[in-house]
Request: fold
Amino acid sequence: MALQACDRMVGRVRRQGRRLGEVHAESTAESRVFDVFALGDDLFLIQRVDAGDTPAHERRRSMVLIEQRDLRIGKRGWLCALGTGYFGSILTPLFTGALGPDLCRVPKARRSAVLTRRVVLANVSDGVAELLQRETDFALVARAADWLAAQGFGLNEVVFGERTPQALAYTERRGQLWRVRPRVYTLAEMREAVARARLRIDTAAHYYVSIRGVHWVTVQEFSRLAELARTEPAKILACLREWAAMAPGENANAMRREKTHGLHAVEFFGLTHEDKLGLLIPAVERLLEGMTLGRMNAEDMADTLAGLALLYRRLLVDPAYADLGEEATVRALYACVADDDQDGSGLRVDFDARRVALPGASFDGAAGAENRPIPHIGADRRTIEVIHYLVSRLSLNERLEYVNVYELRSTKDLTTATGLTREIVFKTNRTPIPVSYIQKRLGSVRAGYADYLLTRANVFRALGADYPAFQLLTDASGGGRRAAPFFLRTRSPGDPLAAIPPALFLSNPENPASPEVPDVIVALARLYGSAAAQNLAAKKHIAGPPATARFGAGKEIFEFAYDPFLHRQMPAHVQVCSIRGTMGWPNLAQDETNLHDSYRFYLRQYAAVLGDYWLAHQDACTLNECAAAFFDGFERKIEAMHWNYLQGKAHFDTFDPGLRDCFAFRPKLDFALWALEAAAKDLPALRERFMDYVRDVFVKA
Reply:
């Protein structure tokens, strides 16, 4: 089995480096010994560890990286310290001089600034170094990543643990967004992330350690330690010291020493701030004081901890937190350890969690080979093939600057990189703004189905439906003897209705309490009606039960644009991003009964969708105003599509793409065209029926 990058680096340092001796670091519960090596301009402090004493799931190592010029004037290279436990067990003795004056000569007045801004921290687990930005200058974090690469770490072995804007921008420009810790999307992923966060420092206590370095104690762990006090009091006394004793160079114990955003180095999960500071923490401090001064014995300590464990359980803000298996506990613990909305994108957290970056490729910068992709470790054939396709479409002297590949997970139980849909975002030297494509593998590999799909899309685009442009390709990685087809389409600009930022509807976007603008609500209703007209013309139908027109299901993408007359962003365009169900109406009889059955089926669904939309914005306009605007948009689009049909009638009526008979393409198209002509003639009657259905929705409600 190949050695992991960190072990390779340590082995190389021990073989090739010049050993300068050893240094000792004392913490509240453990003494550590570090071997000191020099290799080139770099200095390495490597802790002596007996791996056999530590269970495999706890073998997470702490790495500290500091440019030596920040420790001593005139020095070059990096200092890399690698040990177990928490970062303070390395940093505190280093900056207080306990490891010797030759390593660090930072004046006391500058220590806080250097510790806060000039130190890069990393957790090393399963061979991967996860860099933490915290308050550190990101440029330094990026240089640390480059230094680790020079030490033999692969791209997949150095990742960024925090989704900060700087980390996202840095990796995006390199086509390496997959190196930033992804958001979780499923409860199972939350459980996995929480389990990875559990580790020991120096003592018997286990913590859930957050990205920001906060060590969370749960009531279950507190109770376990209380029971352990009966049989191994010395270990529990060490835990108390870890929590309540003053560490060298610190001015507060771990329970009171602020770490980040009002949280402390050690926190008690599930308790209010008042209960922690007013009850539990003082009791733990008094217990350690009593043991230290000899006023209490081991039995007293065990009894006191048992009582505190009961108190802890009674004080929980949610009784469910007493069970680590409860969903509420998992979600709350994950929020504690992940700090998941730190980039301020709360509205898009769920979408971003579905959008998982995958390994892609970098590009050769050599002259004449600028567009030669260099696949990243883990990039699959599907990704590589689409990148080659992008390269083949470049213009003369155009080159790819970066490509980022995402998977859009559609269900919460889908394993990463196995889904149907991906998003490809790329930028070239000839485009100022990145371009986005959606790549989707077809759910059906039925012979000829891909051609049927593409032809339907092209026919209705020619009629004026606002479908994106589709291009059919093949994916040789699909398995089986036949290559799996997939298509690329341009990503529809804008957002589905549910994801439109609420501020776009408001009279004052900066004031959430301001009223909604009637013109915006009515304009979007008009676009919604346009999308409904396309739905009707395309005869979208998904068999049930219940059968559905697949309207109002998030496939209508609304784009806002600046209106120079109103001096604000207004709904400007709608695009339908899915063609699923097109020409799906099951009855192809060209008679009045079938026609009116279809009207009833579609108009009732449109009325229900419009009703839901109006309820969400009812303070801005009346139901009649909203419904009338919806049908205005519907009417205009039907008329436009009918006009397009009449202009190209000879072509549409004789079009034969040579598809397999089993798809019944021509009979379905004939019915759709006949129904479009009928709808254009029936618009006044359709308006009345639609308004009746809208009123029915609210009468029945």
Observations:
- The chain has a mean pLDDT of 89.
